[in-house]
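Hi support team,

I submitted a single chain yesterday and got back a structure, but I'm not sure I'm reading the token output correctly. Could someone confirm the output below corresponds to the sequence I sent? I've pasted both exactly as they appear in my results page.

Thanks,
R.
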Amino acid sequence: MKIGFAQTKSRERFSENLEECLDFMTLAGKLGVNLLCFPEMHLTDFFLSRADHHYPFQYAEGIPGPTVERFQKAAREQKMAVVLNYMEQFNYEYYSSSPVIDSSGKLLGVSRMVHIPQIMGYCAQSYFTPSCGDFQVYNTKFGKVGVLVSFDRHFPEATRALTLRGADIILIPGFIAEGQDPDMYRAELRTIAYQNCLYAGMCSRVGEENETRFIGKSMLADPDGDILVEGSAESELVVADIDLAAARRRHKENPYLTLRRPDEYLYIVRNC
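Hi R., thanks for writing in. Yes, this is the structure output for that exact sequence:
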């Protein structure tokens, strides 16, 4: 099975970003990619702070909607499962949302960011609503895919929830900015993959925005905790071959799962 990460570079126009993503899907199809992941907010600016503060809220839409339908058509044509991320409007609220599309073009569901970062310089808490109950696993033709939207990856409860729901792969639409240590991201992905005995990958964007430079470095870790592939700092398609059958065998043998004692962890729930 081939998995791909589309390191996109955001442009000013929404239509240009959309066409770039569809071009990436065409390229991925030619390379035999079965499952493709895009970065966080790959259709608009990442920082929602233009002088025109209606941008990109003007592009937020419901799911299903016109944008996801374009990707559904492309997924069907390329026979490829796809994980997206863009701004969704639902009941007068905005979410950082990742629609998941199967290779048949069917919309399997939507994972929304649960943990909204409260970090200086990142004003996501000002416009995104935290979601609930969105640690879902999607049964694609190629395997069971769990999705964590960006900041959600920092919470081990989230990764374990996806593992216990049967995920073979955890995909993370995210980013790495200049000044952030890629080694930290490598260590985090390696730990997620090793402790849960699955594949864990993050797709990151490239380019500059508001004096912030995004440096790509999309990466995939295998169940042994090794980094299989890592992207450059340029716009590119990062591709890796994975063996889900071997990962599932390891999953059954993993002591971090077989020796779990949930009764001893009840205080985590009690102290929420």
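A quick pointer for reading it: The domain at 2-270 is CATH 3.60.110.10 (Nitrilase/N-carbamoyl-D-aminoacid amidohydrolase). Let us know if anything else looks off.

Best,
Support desk
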